[in-house]
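Researcher: Predict the fold of DUF917 domain-containing protein.
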Amino acid sequence: MSITMIDVKDLDAIAIGAALYGTGGGGDPHIGKLLAQRSIREHGPTKLITLDELNDDDLIISVAMIGAPAVMLERLAETAPLIAALRELEAKLGRRATALFSAEVGGLNSVIPFSVATELGLPLVDADTMGRAFPNLEMTLCTLQGIVPVPLALADEKGNRLLMDTIDNAHLERYVRSITMDMGGSCYSALYSMTVAQAKKSLVQGSISMTQRAGKALFEARARHLDPVAALVRVTGGHCLFKGKVTDLQRKIDGRWSKGEATIAGLDEHAGQTATLLYQNEFLMARTGDRVLASTPDLICTVDMETGEPITAEQVRYGLRVAVLGLPSVPEWRSPAAIALVGPRAFGYDVDYRAVEQLAMDRS
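Model: Structure tokens for DUF917 domain-containing protein follow.
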């Protein structure tokens, strides 16, 4: 059996790792961590399990917050609306979930399900739909397997509930974003209901444990006075793309996403160079001039040069000294169909995707 009991202190490492794998977006996991820790103190540890602990016909459901990360920093998460959304979806499906899972392993939604699982006495599956964070509901590996987010339930803290079942993902994305704005810029959801048999083909397994390993590696490096950035590069199999000081920021919220661009003046081995980070909720492109350092679906992460602390796109500010890391995506994101769904051109960038490790070899 592969069952892990997640207690209050375990969430510290998971939240740090989730901030890293959030690639700048997904909302600040610290908020979800505090909510989950409160639930664990009241109801006991969360049981983290693998899919192998369940039967193939068992039902699993994801619970998540939806909205612009900047808004979710202002409106603190609550458990009751998440449970309300879950119950609404279960009523539609005519059966209860055997376990829950995280919609995305990066950012707020990686830790949000811990609070619901703990309060309801359900296990949480060590898996997610993408191995990182992405802004759109359909930008998951489930989509590539023909598994859709609908029916989808939404709820807010006032007690409103909505059930949605659309004809395609384009309509779902448009309607959900519109309703989310009417609900104050963020709301609570239950979505991507599936059997365990479907999950084994479409989820990134072991992804919660992956975030915990990253967090533990960072804590250990700090305790031993080692280079925390190097520790994160080692544990993730990533690359340090650039080091520098943030010198300019451009930000806006267009009703759907937080969009922006950060300019970084190089330090140390990158002195005299300038890097630009482009983001739409998540960092999607890193480049120096016309040369691409990394692009989606690979992960682009900013961390503090001294502490290794992950920095979300909303937290990037003038004067910060940051290291930009490029982490390889899970292999499933590198197929032609996946690149069409979440590659650079899917976000409007006129660039063909190349793997971060290939780009690193070119530079060396």
